[in-house]
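Both lines are given unchanged directly below:

***
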Amino acid sequence: MTETHGIIYVFFESFGSYLVFFKNIIIWTFRKPFDLKNIMQQMLEIGYKSLPVTGITLFFTGMVMALQIGRAMDALMPGSSIYIGSAVTISMFRELSPVLTALLLAGRVGSAIAAQIGTMKVTEQIDALVTLSANPIQYLAVPRFLACLVMTPVLTVITDVVGVLGGAFIAYFGLGVTIDKYLENIFQYITLMDFVSGIMKSVFFGIEISVIACYQGFATMGGAEGVGRTTISAVVKSSMAVLISDYFLTYLLAFMG
């Protein structure tokens, strides 16, 4: 029981530290000066430069979904693959696009944020910012937080479209479903909530990735080896946070109708 209590204590202590750090980010987000140039630079780094990897990954994910589901549908009921458009689109909109995009960002962006801030921490550049009367959270965490908050949903919207296009490619060339039938099936069965639910999830995922990565960067100790541990920890923890929170967000959205 003692060991179990210790694990629970460490978990809630760590969770509370993240919440306090998140609170500080929110506070400094609304305080002047507003570094728009730094925010735009982070949006470019997080959003635009992540577009190739997310786009290619979700395009092929849409292709795989169409191929697997379409063949399974035809095996159960010949000709039913004509409904592949709505099957792929609902899967992409609700789950695959927001979750896979967030996981890719956790690997690419989360590791980069943790490594950048961690390197600044061990080389005492953050201490230099404090000496210059600049708040490290406002200067380093807030731009990355805002960039993730904005660009994760934007990338999710793009990967939604790209994934559906990947499904259309296989539907036409692999299943014999015409593009007009594919689109007609999408518009017939898809709802606005299917699309909005994925975007709502991506907002939370962006917050989790940025907060965890920034926190791990600020907590770095131990030189270059410590930066490596920080980077790994940021990727693992943000990926786990995305997958765990996805269940609770899915349940909450289903409960809300």
